[in-house]
Amino acid sequence: MSMSATLEDCLRNKGSRYEILRHPYSHSSMETAAAAHIPGDRLAKTVLFEDEQGYIAAVLPSTYAVRLSELWSKTGRRLSLAKEIDLRELFKDCEYGALPPVCSAYGMKTYLDESLARQPDVYFEAGNHEELVHMDAEQFLALMDSAERAHFGRRMHGMTV
Q: Which part of the chain is the YbaK/aminoacyl-tRNA synthetase-associated domain (predicted)?
């Protein structure tokens, strides 16, 4: 599978400058960072949450975990992880577990963790498990301009940059 059509349209519509980095197939964001030989702090991962009002996406470095209490406080909602079946339905043009961060293109409110916004450049899934999109911070923040920035992530123990 190549880049998700939704992501490709979004990149084109925003006039984004980026490059594609191919890497061996990986199952998790930490495996992806290792396989692509990139710092985990610069690899964005997308985590989807839901409640009775619908879905929201949280985008943060792969070396971080979501502090749910912070996200609840920020959103005023009691969110829980979205179910796998919902992910497959919502992101039809992506492989499971390879969600790009531009969830607004999929109709979802998106929150961007400030720790990722401070990186000099960012990598993220292209909608498959073998390609990453790489762009400098300015391009990434322009792409994510509809995302709300917040502090909701915390570095996982034992994670190095």
A: 23-141
Q: Count up the domains in the chain and report the number.
A: 1
Q: How far apart are CA 16 and CA 10, in angstroms?
A: 9
Domain assignment of residue 161, yes or no: no
Cβ burial, residue 152 (10 Å; 0-12/13-18/19+): buried
Map tokens 């998700």 to a residue.
Answer: 4
In a domain, 146, yes or no: yes
160 part of a folded domain: no
79-91 as b/e: b if 16+ CB within 10 A: beebeeeebeebb
pTM for this entry = 0.94
DSSP per-residue string spanning 114-143:
HHHHTSSEEEEE-SSSSEEEEEEHHHHHHH
Residue at 112: amino acid letter: L
**CATH number for the domain including 65?**
3.90.960.10
Nearest to 29 by CA among 69, 66, 1: 66
- pLDDT tens digits, one per residue of 90-135: 999 999 889 999 999 999 999 999 999 999 999 999 999 999 999 9
Q: How many whole angstroms separate alpha carbon 143 and alpha carbon 101? A: 9
**CA 127/CA 151 separation, integer angstroms:** 25
Domain that holds residue 68: 5-154
